[in-house]
Design a protein that fits this description.
138 residues; two-stranded antiparallel ribbon; globular; 61% helix; 2 strands
Amino acid sequence: MSLGHSFKMLFVLMFLLFYQNGLANDAYDLEELREYLKTNWKPPSKIKQRFTGQPAMNPLENIHIGFVRINLASDDVSGDERLEICENYEVDDQDFKRLISFYYNYVNMDEQSQIVRIQRVLRLIYHLFTININKINT
């Protein structure tokens, strides 16, 4: 193997390491969100529910899209254990509504780091769909 091929392989391995590390960091940030929502989340008023036409949705519900589930309800798991790969393929409209609710709750947690939170949650959603595509193609 030539030196050029070795450097290319090393580069790809480093990229995969940082990619996996980024996923773990995004999953560990969910703990901060869970603690924040446990103390600060209040269901919207009945008037607001009637105005929007949607019932109050607890943001700490599990989200199962395809083969991947984001486990937000359990207290006994943390970090990257929150992303679970399931054997059954499941797509439900309610889970996409939970994902949207999760996005807005995560992004609007505080105003100071909103751009960073948008990047993190979009990376997490990207990983969710990437895992689904990889699982379907294998």
